[in-house]
């Protein structure tokens, strides 16, 4: 089946040392809406590919200096998706066959029939698009499978955590009441002169802080379990959310924290307006948590990027930092409750667990990629329509 007659999105590099031939072909291709760049030798072609990528290279086999076959091999080593169409003299079929063996998409003999060349360019371009679509589909499938594994594990952990949280709340209440009772005794006039009274007060203060921390953890646990056991968030709370405005709001809220470490947060988007059908408050909670985590993980003077992308019927919010990164052994556990790489007084390990539950409840996905000492990237994928 012939491919659709679409050429305006195709960018090619035409490489030929015959200036008149190259310029005529380039002019005729440009009339077809194809973006054409020109090079007169292999060395220049490689440099031009470094400066700006193209979809298809059309290259003569025989050129002075680096010939087309050598240039082709170097291109395929560095740009695995780039397709190359070789041009040969009418009597030089061997050169075309050698090009195919070295990874060329096809070869054409001079003189070139333009319609044939355009057809081959479109075929090469659509092959690239098909490979990219297949890669994206595989990546999405792997992401969903990973999410399902995490979901099954977290549901079991959540059920257990719910029972633990309820059981812990009772002794916590007893400890808090007892500490308060002791504090009242210490405040009585006849207790003002007892030995080491300040030490007693310090001890009670530490007990109160520990009880508050434990209470916060159990509260987060119960909230997290409630989030995880709800298959979907209440659709009645869903509205069309402008993701750019929401991201700007989140960045504004965390900028004072970032400024303390001289961290700059950039918002990047090529979309004039990108929206998702979701719960704005819950999504804002997740975005604030991701940004706060990035700020804590990033050294002074670092950089955080919030990037908005559109893909078919999905919207993506990407939070990328230049922080310390997450090791391979830890990244598979990053969404588990109580798992944290922070100091004990800096986090409970519940933030990402809750965030995972919120995004799942919103019908989306959240994933993470990271490299130690280079940074971490979280990607939120949300449905665009109802």
From TrEMBL:
It is an enzyme of class 2 (transferase). The modification 4-aspartylphosphate is found at residue 60. Residues 163-386 form the Histidine kinase domain. The keyword Kinase applies. It holds the Pfam family HisKA. PROSITE patterns: HIS_KIN (PS50109), RESPONSE_REGULATORY (PS50110). It catalyses: ATP + protein L-histidine = ADP + protein N-phospho-L-histidine. CDD domains: HisKA. Its EC number is 2.7.13.3. It comes from the Bacteria. One of its GO terms (molecular function) is phosphorelay sensor kinase activity. Keywords: Kinase, Phosphoprotein, Transcription, Transcription regulation, Transferase, Two-component regulatory system. InterPro entries: CheY-like_superfamily, HATPase_C_sf, HATPase_dom, His_kinase_dom, HisK_dim/P_dom, HisK_dim/P_sf, Sig_transdc_His_kin-like_C, Sig_transdc_resp-reg_receiver. Residues 11-125 form the Response regulatory domain. This is histidine kinase. It comes from Desulfotignum phosphitoxidans DSM 13687. The lineage of its organism: Bacteria, Pseudomonadati, Thermodesulfobacteriota, Desulfobacteria, Desulfobacterales.
């Amino acid at each position: 089946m012939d491919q659709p007659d679409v050429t305006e999105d195709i960018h090619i590099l035409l490489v030929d040392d015959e200036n008149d031939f190259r310029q005529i072909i380039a002019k005729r291709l440009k009339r077809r809406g194809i973006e054409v760049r020109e090079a007169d030798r292999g060395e220049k072609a490689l440099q031009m590919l470094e400066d700006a990528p193209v979809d298809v290279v059309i290259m003569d086999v025989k050129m002075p200096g680096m010939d087309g076959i050598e240039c082709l091999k170097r291109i395929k080593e560095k740009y695995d998706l780039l397709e190359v169409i070789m041009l040969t003299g009418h009597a030089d079929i061997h050169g075309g066959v050698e090009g195919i063996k070295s990874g060329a998409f096809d070869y054409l003999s001079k003189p070139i029939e333009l319609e044939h060349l355009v057809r081959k360019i479109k075929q090469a371009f659509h092959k690239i698009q098909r490979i990219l679509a297949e890669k994206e589909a595989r990546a999405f499938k792997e992401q969903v499978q990973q999410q399902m594994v995490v979901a099954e594990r977290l549901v079991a952990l959540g059920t257990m955590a719910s029972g633990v949280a309820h059981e812990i709340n009772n002794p916590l209440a007893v400890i808090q009441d007892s500490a308060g009772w002791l504090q009242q005794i210490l405040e009585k006039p006849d207790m003002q002169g007892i030995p080491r009274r300040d030490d007693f007060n310090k001890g009670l203060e530490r007990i109160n802080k520990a009880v508050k921390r434990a209470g916060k953890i159990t509260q987060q646990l119960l909230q997290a379990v409630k989030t995880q056991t709800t298959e979907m968030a209440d659709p009645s709370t869903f509205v069309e959310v402008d993701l750019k405005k929401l991201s700007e709001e989140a960045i504004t809220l965390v900028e004072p924290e970032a400024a303390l470490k001289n961290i700059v947060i950039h918002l990047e988007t090529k979309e004039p307006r990108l929206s998702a059908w979701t719960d704005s408050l819950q999504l804002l909670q997740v975005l604030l948590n991701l940004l706060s985590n990035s700020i804590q993980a990033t050294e002074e003077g670092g950089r955080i990027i919030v990037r908005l992308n559109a893909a078919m019927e999905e919207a993506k919010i990407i939070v990328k930092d230049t922080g310390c990164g997450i090791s391979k052994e830890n990244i598979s556990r990053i969404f588990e409750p109580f798992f944290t790489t922070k100091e004990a007084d800096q986090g409970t390990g519940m933030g990402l667990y809750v965030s995972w539950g919120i995004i799942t409840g919103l019908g989306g996905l959240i994933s993470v990629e990271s490299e130690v000492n280079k940074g971490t990237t979280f990607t939120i994928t949300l449905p665009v329509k109802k």
